[in-house]
Amino acid sequence: MTAARSARYRSPRHRQSIVRAQHFGLYLFLFTAALFFSIPLLIMISTSLKTAAEVRAGSVFALPVEPGFAAWTRAWGEACIGRTCEGISAGLWNSVIILIPSTVLSVGLAALNGYALSLWNVPRAGAILAALLLGAFIPYQVMIYPLVRMASTVGIYGSLPGIVAVHVIFGIPVLTLIFCNFYKGLPPELIKAARVDGAGFFRIFRRIVLPMSGNIIIVALILSVTGVWNDYLLSLIFAGRDNLPMTVQLASLVGTRIGVPEYNVNMAATLITALPPLLLYLLSGKYFVRGVTAGAIKG
Amino acid sequence: MAVGRAGKRKWSAGCTAVLTLMPTVVICLIAYYGSIGWTIGMSFTTSGILPKYEFAGFDQYIRLWSEPRWHTAFANMFIFGALYVGGCLVFGVALAIAVDQGVRGRNFLQSLFLYPIALSFIVTGLAWQWFLNPTVGLQAFVRSLGFEGFVFDWLSSPEKAIFTLVIAGVWQSSGLVMAIVYAGLGSIDSEIWRAGRVDGIPKVRMYRRVILPMLTPVLLVCVVLLAMNVVKSYDLVVAMTGGGPGFSTDLPAKFVVDNLFQRANIGLASAGATVMLLAVLVILLLSACIQRIRKARP
Amino acid sequence: MTQITIRNAERSYGALKVLRDVSLDIADQEFAVLLGPSGCGKSTLLSAIAGLDDLQSGEILFDGQNVAGVEPADRDIGMVFQSYALYPSMRVRDNLSFGLETQKLPKADIRKRVEWAADLLQITPLLDRKPSALSGGQRQRVAIGRALVREASLFLFDEPLSNLDAKLRTEMRVEIKALHQRLGATFIYVTHDQVEAMTLATRIAVINGGVIEQFATPEEIYNRPASLFVAGFIGAPPMNLIPAVVRSDAGQAYAQLADGALTIPGLTAADGTEIVVGIRPEDLALCEEGEAADLTGKVVVAELLGADTLVWIEVAGQRIAVRLAPEDADRLDPVVRLRATADRISVFDAASTKRLELTR
């Protein structure tokens, strides 16, 4: 009886060796992946800390002999973009003044829209949302020229209001979806109770809905900030020469082919441009992940 | 009593909701659909440097398909698209599953795999351009180790430069797939796994036969998002190859922008843009169909 | 003082008709309960009374005045929701005063009313807490408090007790009843729980499929159900419903069952009419020795309830519940013979499902 039974169990040792091999493979894969993801960043950092001579002499993987921020200072204030040699610091300021109104407006409007669409009986709410989202899926290239014409008709082409308006228009659909999905999760009875209490559309929003939206506002802000900051094409076309943000300045800085390319300066400029969203990413952690996946999961 | 009951019909809060919604919705819809219509319209005109409303039938499309540059761009969209979507999907799913095995340092690894998504394609492109640059990057490094014959010059090779875009794209976007799939894996009922263990089904088999099929809707979302990136890809090409060498890494998005703003070929660009629009609509329709079919199946 | 009249109310969502030609008269100071299974339209009706949902046709009158288009806040109502719907970001005190602030009442008045309601509901110690720090029962009290401070003349309750456990539910039921007596306001209360309905209501409206099946006092509903639906819905277990055909024998009509016949005094329906005979489990008793049986069947199972025992008996393929004293249930033969209390039998027309009046 016992013999017959034990024959039905497989030896645990056999299992263990398989598990060990699988474990080794798993960690090897993760290690390789980690290298793949970190190398470009590490190389950028190390290159940006080298001198120009070192860059030419050594390999990309060589660590800087005398790490210094000379390249960073040049990238910040001296590097040439076209014929002006003021670095990309001006771009930072432009990026910020584009960023603030764009994100505040698009997140604010999206929150209001999401609230109206999901908690109030707006006729054809589903169709409105679908129409907005479909628009968000269309490549900019299809709309860009007519938008240029529309913007110049209204008189905002090539100006700060122009680029802000374009960012808001293209930012609203996905943000609205995020707010809609969140507000749909709130109990509708909350709104009913507030209506019995005599509160109107805006009072309910301000006193009841907004205080509950903290997390989702953070998520939306992160999504909006990264989107606006990292934008290249729209700014290039709509911002106008005086308002070009960092991404555009960076691309032209690197593209400026006067004399020997200064790779260390280029990398420093790239890092400066990448730093704000990168910091935001590191600081916000889970919210960021929620932001990038929010549109995907329910959309 | 009957305080406020007396029949005066008050301004209802529902109307406020609609009125609040209206301005942004109307502006957005005009901006989107107005422009789309306008672009489609212009693709049937003789517009050159400025829009001209002179009907030209399919002339611009015929011109488009006779341009070798467009042919390259259009073909590249499919090559780049297939490799980029496939690469991100396979790599992203593998990462999600690997991270889901209860490995040490999971949070750190996830942050590491996902950070490129916080960067702009411009930054991504520049970083990879530097790393893959034959004269200073990887090739030079391997050669300096003593392998003089090592060649990795994809970036400057007209045939292979498109693959460097794929590498950079996969680097940028696999993390997104990982995050989405990882969330999907977390939503799977743990009893499924217990049932599998009781039945003695190996993990790999579980993933292939049970778990991934359950995640098909999630994977489909990833495919759609990635496919959209392909059609929109402009920044990456500009930063990494500038469309070169020659026009070998041109993509429709870049073709259209160049023709609009540098070559002043508005009619031609509009025709190209309309083709892009069709590509997007095909992607959306396909995914909608697949979803419909999946739902219809019991 | 509020007396409510609903005339021919209709509401549908797409193809789904939720309310069909509903008319109802609720008297002043009444405790009206809208009772029915989920999805029957009772909550929609309550929402329409509150002004939260519009009717497609028909009208609602408060004291004879049509309230169409009047905002909920202007209807002089207080409302308690199933999920309580407390504002999560506000303290209990602010939850209570939010509506009064909206009305721009003087601060002192607001304070007085909040204190009065809190005292009445014994939630004074909770006033400075957030809803998330309250137990289910406490939230329930706050929700009622929020309705009370409005000093409305009409209170609406939408399944307020269904999220509480059994013990608390009984406790709150008693409190709500006491509140009704104390406030002298009109209450309309939606529930799917017949015990709540029976214990609380002055009158119950039983709703099914958007139609009011019966609107009557709890006694009437229990003893003289107006339709097969009411008969099968009220009572635990509900009334035994046995299909039969009317036959007459020498001018005396009787009900021909699948096996056996039942004399029903006052039955006047025409020969051959298909009917359903309804008998409450407590209206069946075991036959004495030698007494003629109305029903005969095999015992399936006996369920001990404490005060009495429910015995399930199979009669002609149908299960029938009989409520017996525990000592009788203990010594049952495998086959039992039953006798029905003749004057408590209900009869329904099988075709129209409506109650047939007996001439007594």
If you had to describe this structure to a student in words, what would you say it looks like?
- Chain A: It holds the Pfam family BPD_transp_1.
- The complex is a heterotrimer of chains A (299), B (298) and C (360).
- Chain A has helices at residues 2-6, 12-48, 52-57, 70-78, 89-119, 125-137, 140-154, 160-184, 188-196, 201-209, 214-230, 233-238, 246-255, 263-284, 286-298.
- Helix content of chain A is 76%, strand content 0%.
- The model of chain A has no long low-confidence stretch (mean pLDDT 84).
- Chain A is flat and about 75 Å long.
- Chain B starts with 12 loop residues before the first helix and ends with a helix.
- The mean pLDDT of chain C is 90.
- By secondary structure, chain C is α+β, with helices and mostly antiparallel strands.
- Chain C has a six-stranded mixed sheet with strand order 6-7-8-3-9-10, with helices on both faces.
- Chain C has two domains: 4-232, P-loop containing nucleotide triphosphate hydrolases (Rossmann fold); 237-349, RNA polymerase II/Efflux pump adaptor protein, barrel-sandwich hybrid domain (OB fold (Dihydrolipoamide Acetyltransferase, E2P)).
- At the A-B interface, helix 2, helix 5, helix 6, helix 7 and helix 8 of A face helix 1, helix 3, helix 4, helix 5 and helix 6 of B.
